[in-house]
Every structure is written in C-alpha cells, then in structure tokens.
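User: Last request for today: this protein with adenosine-5'-diphosphate, please.
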Amino acid sequence: MFFDRTRNLFHSLAFRLTLWYALVFVLLAVTAFALFYLLIVRVIDQRTDTDLLTHANRLGQIYNLEGSEMLQRAALLQVQSVGEHKMFFRLFYATGIFYSSSNMAFWKNIATDRRAVDELLVQGRTHSYATQAIPDRPFKARVIYRRIGQSIMLQMGYSLEAETRLLQSFQRIFMITMVALLGLAVVVGGFMARRALAGVASVTRTARQISESDLETRVPVFHQHNEIDQLAVTFNQMLDRIQHLVAGIRQMNDNIAHDLRSPITRIRGLAEVTLGGADLGEYQSMAASTIEECDRLLHMINTMLTISRTEAGLDPKSFQRVDLSALAQEACTLFQPLAEDKGITLHIQAQSVCPVSGDASMLQRLLGNLIDNAIKYTPPGGRVRVGVACDANSVRLTVEDSGTGIAPEDHPKVFERFFRGDQSRSQDGAGLGLSLARVIARAHGGEIDLNSQPGQGSLFTVRLPMDANAVR
Ligand code: ADP
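Assistant: Here's the final one, the structure of the complex with adenosine-5'-diphosphate:
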C-alpha cells in the first residue's frame, strides 16, 4: 500500500513538474552565482594587480634615482607599513640568487614562479604576475615580478587572506541561500503544479463517480478560459452525448418490449379463447390471426435490422446511378390505387432526369414510406403531391399532403425509432417508417426535413447529392 502510493507519487505529473521546476530554478541560480563569483574574483585580482604595480614602479624609480641601497630601504618600509603578514618583497639576480628580502617567517619558502620569471627574462617584459600558494597557509598570494635596472628582479607579494575569507563567506551564504531557495522552489513548484492540475483531478473524480453510479454528474467548469476548462467542457459534452445515447437505447428497449408485448398478448388471448372448447373453424381463424400477428412482428424486426445495418453504412458496391424522377413516378403509380380507394388525389411533378448515386431498393423504401404516410395521415378528399427537382449539385424530393399535420413539439421525435403520434394509434404501423427514411437519406449523404402545422398538412423534403458523374 505504502509502496504503491510512493510509486504513484513518483509517476505523477505534479511530482515531475515540481522536479523540473526545482531543477531549472537551481540551474539558473547556480549559473547566476558562478557569473557573479567570477566577476568578484576578477575585480579583486585587478585591484590587487594595480596596487602591486604601483608599488613596484615606485621602487623602480627609487632605484633609478638613488641606487640599490635606497631601493632596499624603501621596499622594507613599504612592507612594514602594510604589514609583514600582508606583504613581502625579495630582490634577486637573474641567476636566481636572492640578496635582500623582508621578514619571510610568515611566507616560509615561497617559490619563484618559473613562468613569470621567464616572461621577464625570455620575453623581455617589464613585469608579470602569478598567483602562488604559500606553504602551510590555507590561502594564496598574488605576486608581481618586475625588472629593476639591468640585472635585478623584484618579487613582491600580497596575501590574499582577506579576499579568500570574503569569497569563502560568499560561498557559504550562497550554499545556505541555495538550500532555502531549493526548499522554496519545491514548495512553490508543488503548489503551482497541484493548482494547475486540480482541474484534471476533478475530471478524474467525476469520471470515477460516473463509472460507479450514474450519468448525471458533470465536471465543474470555472470559466477561466484555460485548457482545464476546455477539457471539462469537452468531457461534459461527451457525457451529454453518452447520456443521450443511453437514454435512446433505454427508450428503444422500452418501445421494443411494449411493441412485442401487444401482439404476443393478442396471440396468447386468441389461443386461450380457442382452447376453451372451439370447433375446427375457430381453430382455423386462430391460426390465420396468429400468422398475421407473426408477419407484423417479423416485418417490425426486419425493419429494425435494416435501420441498424443502414446506419452502419450501405455497401458502396450496391450503389448505382438512379434517376430519382423515374423512381418517384414508379412509386406514385404503385400507390395510385391505394390513394384512389381512400378518395385522395395523388399528383407528381418531376423534372425529366434527376440522377443520384445510390441503392435503388433503399431509395424505393424511402419514397414508399413517405408516400404511404402521406396517404395514411390524410383524410378522404385530401391531396398528396410528390415533387422531384434538381439543380447543379443536388436533388430535392418533396412529399406534401393536406393531412392531419404534426405538432411542432413532435417534429424532432417523428424520426426517432418507435415514435407514434397520438392520432396515429388507430392506424397500422410500428413507428419505424420515418427512422428508416432518415437513415437511408443519411447513408446517401443527404438529409430529411419536416415542415408541418397541425391541421394544415405536412411537407417532407429530402435533399440528396447529385450523382458525381452527372455534375456538369
Ligand atoms: P408509423 O407511420 O408507422 O406510425 P412513422 O415512423 O412512419 O411511423 O411515423 C412516425 C409518426 O409520425 C407517425 O406515427 C405519425 O404520428 C407521424 N407522421 C408521419 N408522417 C406523417 C404525415 N404525413 N402526416 C402526419 N403525421 C405523420
């Protein structure tokens, strides 16, 4: 349990963000310190070098004006005035033999720097510098080498003890500050990462809640217009869609159960009545009714299967060039007797050729369902008008009737599976005709619209893309 939590913590985004934040922070701080440190060292060196050169030049002048004796005395005075622990001087010949110096007890046998001496003797420079270790001392000395006259060399050194201490305390302060800043970086970084990811945590919580309970819960949106808000909005939209789909499936299940129960109850009732002492004629009539009910059930189940398959997409191989005008003419001819029986006038007005690319039998079913409904929901004496027209890119099919019409609140529902309007209960049907019509239109890249007012008839409009080969 503990190890699991620790592992989760190490893998968490918040932990990694904090780590990166602290790392970048430390890197920047170390770089800034290093630059600052180098600058201080440079300034100290420059200041010390200038001081040493001033002293050495003055001694050179004294030698030129007053000779070797005065040089030694002046150098000694100079060292004593600064302090024998702070400064020393030695005079030596080019051969390396020392002949005069200040008190060297503190400086022990400080060496002469070969490179610095060579710069004077070989390269002919007037002076050169070296930073040299002092035996048994924890700090160094900055030393100047200067030619005095033809054959004398002056070595004059300045202890860097104070500077070393200054730099050491600077390093100590930096270390303490760094530890404090690192702690602060971790706390601030952790806080910022947690704050930034709080939205993600709330999405995760909601998702967990949903899988455990219902689909009602939504992620809170704080309207700060940031990425987390976008995530929450997208997540909520996805939940809306899922909820809508699940509700649809539930509704469909209820409808299927309801629509199956009625015919089965009817079949059972017939069988029960017939069992209670019936003659052959009654048995025959029961068998005929059973067959009729079963046919209706089979028709309903087949239509449901066709809707599902069409929704999943039609086989492109079944697509061919279909003239919708001709197809509509044929359908009208087929429905003419039915319309006449009911005392309804059925007209068609179709442009000569309106080609679409599609599955002819499916388009026939679409037309059939729309014309059948128009006749079914129009009282005797009414009229039904079918129209086909096309422009450069699309074909428009309209089926208009002067029938009962549809209430505006039912417009979106009529295309749902198993929806049946109140006035249609007396009519034959399963509430699947318009659902099938819509999935067929969509499977052909088109759409179906409804325009209707109760008591004033209905107008169904199907728009399909023109057959690509026929587009001019
Ligand atoms: P069905 O006709 O089998 O009930 P449909 O899916 O074809 O199922 O139609 C769904 C509902 O839409 C019908 O029950 C009816 O209330 C309404 N409807 C469809 N077409 C028309 C129409 N032309 N006029 C009035 N109402 C219609």
